[in-house]
Amino acid sequence: MVRVWIVPVDLPPEAAARCLAVLDDGERARAAAFLSERDRQQFAVAHGALRILAARELRETPSALRWDRGPYGKPALAAPWSGLSTGLSHSADLVAVAIAVGRAVGVDIQCLAPGPNVVALSARFYPAAEAAYVADGRDEAARADRFTRLWCRKEAVVKAAGGRLWPNLTIAVLGGDVVGCAEPPGPHRVADVPAPTGFRAAVALSGAAPFVAQALTWPGEVEATAAAD
């Protein structure tokens, strides 16, 4: 089981204040370094929600939790909480928090906003079959949807693996839920996650074993379920 919470950046004042209150000194300094108030708020909500939700799973105080960073910067909970794996992603006005036990987790959420030429980007970075799938979308919106869905799946796998994105953009994530990560090598299972209109999201766990993804919103948790089998 992996749980994925979708969290709005624009939280009610009480919840936003709680997120800020549980940050450690380093996180407060990182938040303060952003020039934009919106960026500061997004950072505080994302990292505060991660602490609150992980602490609830662990029955721990949110401000007590500590994360170490892997070779490419992937945060992992430090001992004695290292049996729990966490993932974090944010895009536009939403944050995604993922939590799993016993398997490394990665999560990604992306906004379907007008942007670059997704057909050209797919042709440059994606495998040929995926580039063709994107290009075959019936219109610009469909092509953006296909591109973003594949991007989320790739990022989720890379984050679970603790690797770098660019060497792994060529991994195939279309038409199968077990993906072979290129760097570092190894199998991962990935699933799409229900997301609000205008967004796409995906979650991945290390290993090929099936899992159930429980998608929730926070605060005021409302649940949807997706299976990766």
Q: Supply the CATH architecture.
A: Alpha-Beta Complex
CATH hierarchy, class: Alpha Beta
- Please tally the β strands and state the result: 11
The fourth-level CATH homologous superfamily is 4'-phosphopantetheinyl transferase domain
Structural class: alpha+beta
Query: Which sequence of strands runs across the widest sheet?
Result: 4-5-1-10-11
Runs with pLDDT <50, length 5+? none
Strand content: 25-35%
H/E series, N to C? Answer: EHHHEEEEEHHHEEEEE
Distance from first to last alpha carbon: 12 Å
Biggest sheet, in brief?
A: 5 strands, mixed
Which whole number gives the mean pLDDT?
93
Computed over alpha carbons, the radius of gyration is: 17 Å
Topology:
Layout: E1 2-8, H1 13-21, H2 25-33, H3 37-58, E2 67-69, E3 75-77, E4 84-91, E5 94-101, E6 105-111, H4 118-125, H5 128-135, H6 140-161, E7 178-182, E8 185-193, E9 199-206, E10 211-217, E11 223-228
Parallel strand pairs: 1-10
Antiparallel strand pairs: 1-5, 2-3, 4-5, 6-9, 7-8, 8-9, 10-11
Helix pairs in contact: 1-3, 2-3, 4-5, 5-6
Describe this structure in words.
This protein has helices at 13-21, 25-33, 37-58, 118-125, 128-135, 140-161, and strands spanning 2-8, 67-69, 75-77, 84-91, 94-101, 105-111, 178-182, 185-193, 199-206, 211-217, 223-228. Helices cover 34% and strands 31% of the residues. The longest helix has 22 residues, at 37-58. With 229 residues, the chain is α+β, with helices and mostly antiparallel strands. It is built from six helices and eleven strands.
Keywords, separated by commas or semicolons:
Ribosomal Protein L22, Chain A; globular; alpha+beta; 229 residues; four-stranded antiparallel sheet
